[in-house]
C-alpha cells in the first residue's frame, strides 16, 4: 500500500491538493494511506520549500502549486 | 464538435511557436481596437457622448478591457517565466552569495520566482538551510510579494508605464536596502533556535521535471485562470469607482490631507494605516484609483500601497514561528522606513 503525504501549512492550495488526491483515490478504488503534514518543522525535514508538496513512500514527487490531475493519476497507477 | 474542441485544446502544445505568434498578434490587434470599441459601445447607448455620464461610460468601457488585457498578457508571460525559475533554482543561485550583489539578485529574482504567501516560511527556512545569508533572504522575502506582476500590470494599465516603472524601481530599492541593513545588523541570533540549527544543513534536492513548450504554455494558461480569475472583480470595482466618483466628489477632496501640500506627517500616517490592512495587490487598486483621482499625491499613495502589500499583521504572525520578536520588529521597522523614504522622494521629485 502506498503512503502519500501532503505537505502544507493549511493554505487553500494545500487543501485543494489533498481533496484532488482523495477524489482520484476514490475514483480509482486503490488503497492508499493518505496523511497531511502541517507542522513547519516536519515539512522542512523533506527539503520542500514551496508548498503544497507531495511525498510518496518517503520520496518528494511534487512541490509548489496544485498538481495536475494527470500527474495525480500517474502516482496512483 | 467535441473532437473539434479537443483538437483546439491540444493545438498550443502541438505547435507552441505558431500558437505564441498568433496569440501575440491577436492580443496586439485587440489592444489597438480598444478606443474605437469603447466609442462604438457608448454610441449604441441612449446617452449623449459629451455628457458627464457618457464620458464616465466611455472611460469604463475603455479602461476595463485595457487593464484586463494587460493583466492577462503579463500574467500569461509570468506563468511561462515561472516554469524556468523554481524556488529551488533561485535558492541554488543565491546560495553562498555575499551581501550586496546577493541582495540585488534576491530582490530581482523575487519578481520572477513563483511565490505564494503561504509558502513564505518554508521558503525562508529553505533559503537559510542552503546557506543563503539572512540579509539576502530578507531581500527576497520583501521583494517577492511587493513587486509582483499583478501590481505592475495594474499600475501600468491605470496610471501608465512611468508609474509602474517607478514602483518597480523603488520596490526593488526598498527590498535591497532593507535586506542589506538587516544583514549588517547580524541578527542571526534572533532566529528561533530550531531554525538556527537548520542553517547550512543542506537539504534534500528536489528536481523539477524538464518541461517542453507545450507544458510551459499550459502553465501560462493555468496562471491566468488562477490570477485573473481571482482579481477581476477587484479591478472592475476599482475602475467603476474611478469612473463613478468622477465629478461627484470634489477633485481636491483628498488634496488637503494626502496631496502635495499636505503636512509632512501625511506619508507616515499613510504607512501606519497601511500596515494593519491586509490585502493583495488587486484588492488595493480600487482604493489607489480613488485616492489618486481625488488629488492625493503619488508618493503618499504608493507608500500606502507598498505598506499594505509588504507589511501585514497576518504575515508577522506566521513569521513569528521562525523569528524572535526583536527580528520581526527590526524587519517591520526597516521596511516601513524604506517605504516612508520612497513616499517622500516621490512627492518631492514629481
The CATH class of chain A: Alpha Beta
Helix and strand composition category of chain A: alpha+beta
Low-confidence stretches of chain B: none
**Which word captures the global form of chain B?**
flat
Helix-strand pattern of chain A, N to C?
EHEHEEH
* Helix content, binned percent of chain B: over 70%
| Cα distance spanning the termini of chain B | 57 Å
Mean pLDDT of chain B: 81
Oligomer: heterodimer
Q: State Rg of chain A.
A: 11 Å
Spatial separation of the terminal alpha carbons of chain A: 12 Å
Please report which band the strand proportion of chain B falls in: under 5%, 5-15%, 15-25%, 25-35%, 35-45% or over 45%: under 5%
Second rung of CATH, namely the architecture of chain A: 3-Layer(aba) Sandwich
Quick synopsis:
The complex is a heterodimer of chains A (77) and B (350). With 77 residues, chain A is of the alpha+beta class.
Task: Tell me what the structure shows.
The complex is a heterodimer of chains A (77) and B (350). Chain A is α+β, with helices and mostly antiparallel strands. Chain A has one domain: 3-Layer(aba) Sandwich (Glutaredoxin), CATH 3.40.30. Chain A contains 3 helices and 4 strands. Chain B has 350 residues and is mainly alpha-helical. Chain B has a domain at 87-201 and 247-349. Chain B is built from 18 helices and no strands. In chain B, helix 9 (149-159) packs antiparallel against helix 10 (161-184) and helix 15 (281-293) runs antiparallel to helix 16 (298-310). At the A-B interface, helix 1 and helix 2 of A face helix 5 and helix 7 of B.
Key features?
heterodimer, A: 77 residues, alpha+beta, Glutaredoxin, 3 helices, 40% helix, B: 350 residues, mainly alpha, 74% helix
Write the layout of secondary structure elements.
The complex is a heterodimer of chains A (77) and B (350).
Chain A: E1 2-7, H1 12-28, E2 32-37, H2 40-45, E3 53-56, E4 59-63, H3 69-76
Helix pairs in contact in A: 1-3
Chain B: H1 2-14, H2 16-32, H3 34-44, H4 52-82, H5 87-94, H6 101-112, H7 120-129, H8 134-146, H9 149-159, H10 161-184, H11 193-198, H12 213-245, H13 255-258, H14 266-274, H15 281-293, H16 298-310, H17 313-319, H18 325-349
Amino acid at each position: 500500500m502506498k503512503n502519500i503525504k501532503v505537505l502544507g501549512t493549511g493554505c487553500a492550495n494545500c487543501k485543494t491538493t489533498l481533496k484532488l488526491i482523495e477524489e482520484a483515490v476514490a475514483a480509482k478504488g486503490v488503497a492508499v494511506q493518505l496523511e497531511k503534514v502541517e507542522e513547519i518543522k516536519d515539512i522542512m525535514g523533506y527539503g520542500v520549500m514551496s508548498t503544497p508538496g507531495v511525498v510518496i513512500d518517503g520520496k518528494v514527487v511534487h512541490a509548489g502549486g496544485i498538481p495536475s490531475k494527470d500527474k495525480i493519476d500517474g502516482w496512483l497507477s | 464538435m467535441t473532437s473539434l474542441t479537443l483538437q483546439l485544446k491540444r493545438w498550443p502544445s502541438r505547435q507552441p511557436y505558431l500558437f505564441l505568434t498568433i496569440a501575440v498578434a491577436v492580443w496586439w490587434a485587440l489592444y489597438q481596437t480598444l478606443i474605437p470599441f469603447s466609442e462604438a459601445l457608448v454610441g449604441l447607448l441612449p446617452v449623449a457622448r459629451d455628457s458627464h455620464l457618457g464620458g464616465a461610460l466611455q472611460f469604463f468601457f475603455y479602461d476595463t478591457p485595457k487593464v484586463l488585457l494587460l493583466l492577462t498578457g503579463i500574467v500569461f508571460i509570468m506563468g511561462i517565466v515561472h516554469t524556468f525559475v523554481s524556488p529551488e533554482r533561485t535558492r541554488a543561485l543565491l546560495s553562498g552569495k555575499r551581501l550586496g550583489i546577493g541582495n540585488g539578485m534576491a530582490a530581482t529574482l523575487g519578481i520572477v520566482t513563483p511565490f505564494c504567501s503561504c509558502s513564505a516560511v518554508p521558503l525562508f527556512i529553505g533559503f537559510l538551510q542552503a546557506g543563503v545569508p539572512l540579509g539576502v533572504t530578507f531581500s527576497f522575502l520583501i521583494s517577492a510579494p511587493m513587486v509582483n506582476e499583478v501590481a505592475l500590470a495594474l499600475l501600468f494599465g491605470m496610471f501608465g508605464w512611468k508609474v509602474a516603472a517607478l514602483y518597480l524601481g523603488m520596490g526593488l530599492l526598498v527590498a535591497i536596502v532593507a535586506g542589506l541593513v538587516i544583514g549588517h545588523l547580524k541578527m542571526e541570533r534572533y532566529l528561533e533556535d530550531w531554525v538556527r540549527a537548520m542553517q547550512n544543513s543542506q537539504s534534500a534536492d528536489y528536481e523539477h521535471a524538464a518541461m517542453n513548450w507545450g507544458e510551459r504554455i499550459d502553465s501560462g494558461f493555468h496562471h491566468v485562470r488562477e490570477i485573473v480569475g481571482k482579481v477581476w472583480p477587484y479591478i472592475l470595482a476599482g475602475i467603476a469607482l474611478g469612473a463613478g466618483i468622477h465629478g461627484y466628489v470634489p477633485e481636491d477632496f483628498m488634496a488637503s490631507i494626502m496631496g502635495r501640500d499636505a503636512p509632512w506627517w501625511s506619508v507616515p500616517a499613510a504607512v501606519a494605516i497601511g500596515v494593519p490592512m491586509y490585502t493583495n495587490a488587486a484588492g488595493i487598486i480600487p482604493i489607489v484609483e480613488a485616492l489618486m483621482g481625488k488629488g492625493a499625491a503619488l508618493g503618499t499613495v504608493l507608500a500606502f500601497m507598498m505598506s499594505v502589500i509588504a507589511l501585514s499583521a497576518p504575515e508577522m504572525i506566521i513569521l513569528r514561528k521562525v523569528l524572535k520578536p526583536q527580528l520581526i520588529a527590526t524587519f517591520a521597522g526597516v521596511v516601513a522606513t524604506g517605504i516612508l523614504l520612497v513616499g517622500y522622494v516621490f512627492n518631492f521629485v514629481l
